[in-house]
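Backbone shapes recur. Consider a single case.
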Amino acid sequence: MRVVSETELRAGIRERVAAAGTSFYWAMRLLPEARRDAMYAIYAFCREVDDIADSDAPAPAKQAALDRWRREIDAIFAGTSALPLGCVLTADAIRFRLRREDFLEIIDGMAMDAQRDIQAPSLAELDLYCDRVASAVGRLSVRAFGDDSAAADRVAHHLGRALQLTNILRDIAEDGERNRLYLPRQLLVAAGIEATEPDIVIRHPNLALACDQLADIAERHFADAQAAMAACSRRAMRPARAMGAVYRAQLAMLRERGWRRLGEPIKLAKSTKLWLALRHGLI
């Protein structure tokens, strides 16, 4: 059997990321090749575990699949992984000092989705969820970018939350179809919404009040992330600045569209994404 080289493995991962057509792909193009390939491998891992959490499999089957990935993370950091993606991540973990606990936190976040349909979590639970599924990704990312300082971890803390909250606000209708609702209970109650069932909340006339409050929280995280970047390597933070700019623009588009037309998608043109990536990544 022919042994597949690391170069071939990475080429396959790169093609998967490019085919996904995400904002992530454009921002990562600002990185040198080795760091960019590490980010593509991190992205591929996140897609693997996210697909498990979002599958139609029964909860026990999802948990079993996530547990297999927990064992795989142990193998990656022991240098014994036999999976193509695992072999690539072993090299990246050594090269860029990626941390085992951040990978495990991501899996823990996916487990929160796999265990039950999240509906109107508390602010504390939502913050924990965002930390696991987004800020933990950020903590891996800033190391791949080239900055493992405390300030870089603060960027990951705030920017991860800002991006995830923007995703939540963008995907309210889509999540509702999966019987999920990530809008926090305290904001719903403050808006006069006692229900937690997605279909009821989505139709409630006061939905906009809760969404605006969550958007305000996201904006504060964007601002705090930008402030933390000032203490980081400017070169290393180029992709973070670009991602922040793209998602902040999406949040502004969501506010402009309003919260009564949830089925109406908002999407930045590729040319706009590229312009934002260049402007905030190169200046």
Q: What stands out?
A: The chain has one domain: 6-282. The mean pLDDT is 91. Residues 6-282 form a domain with the Farnesyl Diphosphate Synthase fold (CATH 1.10.600.10).
